[in-house]
TrEMBL record:
CDD domains: Bbox1_BBX-like. It comes from Corchorus capsularis. Pfam families: CCT, zf-B_box. One of its GO terms (cellular component) is nucleus. It is found in: Nucleus. This is Zinc finger, B-box. Its main location: nucleus. Residues 301-343 form the CCT domain. GO terms for molecular function: DNA-binding transcription factor activity; transcription cis-regulatory region binding; zinc ion binding. The keyword Zinc applies.
Length: 377
DNA sequence: CGTCAGTTAATTCCCACATCCCTCT
DNA sequence: ATAGAGGGATGTGGGAATTAACTGA
């Protein structure tokens, strides 16, 4: 099926304009420099952080992160592996508090980079996807690229899976879906294990997070989002209070299919010191002038979240097998025109006679295949 | 340029049942 | 507080049906 990029672009162009570069004030910001607490477009980032002499030496230590893929108004704080998207704290909270499945999404803190964002983009094998934001004169250009388009991105975090992460990991030899993020100084993978759900843990191919764990959230009523001070220049100062970034699936947050609306958003306390419904509320002492992303009203946020969901819907994901045992059983089941058919006594006998897969055989197969085995009784 | 038919590709739906997981005792 | 039973919900794959996009006349 062909992909109507034009229509996608048109659809996403309705959203909120991307944050503009603090330097040139014209182009859309692509990165956020934690050290400078400044939003920058690729060109300005390249110019400022790749300058010569001492400036280069100093600037090369500047820790930078991509912008949030959804709102493009705030620095990305976490990378959702399931959605393959880099999200800011606010969008992370909005999207991943929607339902229990979303809460299961595995998220890791974004990995800052120190090289020029432009270089990273260019060195990425997917750099051809990234349109130039600089005209031939080398000056910044007001992008006419629609914000939020992950196919034709206005910023290089356009596709965190392909762009940001791939480029970030090109140098480290890592892959986006590597089990361990070398950037993290704790084993988040292990933290996802379920000490008391051995069967499920063993059976699941993808991490299933059902074990409530302490929530690494400060000043945030939403249990499932991170609270990170973007302006901190040193990574180890990330304010994770626990050794796990697992998010809670506590019973108190199990309302199914509840998408936060504008009103509910007002209850969310943002680390930026403002509430959604009161953008003029005083900024907390720790808030910098650059952390004003969530100023947008609830309607804007709703639009951005809708845009994100639309974007996510258009993505192609490989099918994820959550339960290998069910897969094995499904494959061994009799079918009629592709549909599962009732297994009769005769079928069972035939299966036995011809040594065809049975429940026990399927379990044995999974055992051989290094899958987790759910004991069948 | 617009319309239509034919072709191709992608998506959705359906089925049975082992397993999951929550509630109740 | 813990264990066990009960039962509704979930997830699984292959093929048919449906839908969407594309192509050429």
């Amino acid at each position: 099926m062909g992909f109507d990029i034009a229509s996608v672009k048109a659809g996403w162009s309705m959203g909120l304009a991307a944050k503009t570069c603090d330097s040139c004030k014209s182009a859309a910001a692509a990165i956020f420099c934690r050290t400078d607490s400044a939003f920058m477009c690729l060109n300005c980032d390249s110019r400022i952080h790749s300058g010569g002499g001492n400036n280069k030496l100093v600037s090369s230590r500047h820790e930078r992160v991509w912008m949030c893929e959804v709102c493009e108004q705030a620095p990305a704080a976490v990378t959702c592996k399931a959605d393959a998207a880099a999200l800011c704290v606010t969008c992370d909270a909005d999207i991943h508090s929607a339902n229990p499945l979303a809460r299961r999404h595995e998220r890791v803190p974004v990995e800052p980079f120190f090289d020029s964002a432009d270089n990273i983009v260019k060195s990425s094998p997917f750099s051809f996807l990234v349109p130039s934001t600089t005209d031939q004169t080398g000056t910044c250009q007001q992008e006419d690229v629609e914000p939020g388009s992950w196919l034709l991105p206005s910023n290089p975090n356009m596709n965190s899976k392909l762009g940001m992460e791939a480029s970030n990991h090109v140098k480290t030899g890592d892959l986006f879906f590597s089990e361990m993020d070398p950037f993290m100084d704790f084993d988040y993978q292990n933290s996802f294990q379920q000490p008391h759900h051995n069967n499920a843990a063993m059976d699941s191919v993808v991490p299933v997070q059902t074990k409530p764990t302490p929530i690494p959230v400060i000043n945030n009523n939403n249990e499932n989002c991170f609270d990170i001070d973007f302006c901190r220049s040193k990574l180890p100062t990330f304010s994770y209070q626990t050794q796990s970034i697992s998010h809670s699936v506590s019973s108190s947050s199990l309302e199914v299919g509840v998408v936060p609306d504008g009103n509910s958003l007002s209850d969310i306390s943002y680390p930026f010191g403002r509430t959604m419904t009161d953008p003029n509320a005083p900024i907390s002492a720790t808030t910098t002038a650059n952390n004003q992303a969530p100023q947008a009203g609830g309607i804007d946020r709703e639009a951005r979240v809708l845009r994100y969901r639309e974007k996510r819907k258009n993505r192609k994901f490989e099918k994820t097998i959550r339960y290998a045992s069910r897969k094995a059983y499904a494959e061994s089941r009799p079918r009629i025109k592709g549909r599962f058919a009732k297994r009769t006594e005769l079928d069972n006998e035939v299966d036995h006679l011809f040594n065809l897969p049975t429940s026990a055989a399927a379990a044995a197969y999974m055992s051989d295949a290094q899958y987790g085995v759910v004991p069948s009784f």
